[in-house]
Amino acid sequence: xxxxxxxxxxxxxxxxxxxxxxxxxxxxxxxxxxxxxxxxxxxxxxxxxxxxxxxxxxxxxxxxxxxxxxxxxxxxxxxxxxxxxxxxxxxxxxxxxxxxxxxxxxxxxxxxxxxx
Length: 116
Prior knowledge:
This protein is mainly beta. Helix content is 4%, strand content 40%. It has a five-stranded antiparallel beta sheet with strand order 1-2-8-3-6. Strand 4 (64-68) and strand 5 form a beta hairpin. The longest helix has 5 residues, at 5-9. The chain is globular, with a radius of gyration of 14 Å. It starts with a helix and ends in an 11-residue tail after the last strand.
């Protein structure tokens, strides 16, 4: 299966949700087993809550700050980030063209983390 950012952007904003009454800034583009791939293009304010699965972000376009568990990271195209299941995180100060791939995977509660 092949999907593209362009295909995703044509579907955004998605249907309104309780968290995003003006339309969700994300759309699922593929899924299989425990894995799903979304495109996330926040506008205004990022209102996401911690997720039940581990996730990876791959920044496609634009810039932002990503706060993960209280630590802030600068985001630019080509950057990748890991967020463990249940950890508070959000994007802030994102450019108008900010777009990132999001990959959710593994069991609810995240994969077991080993020492170190």
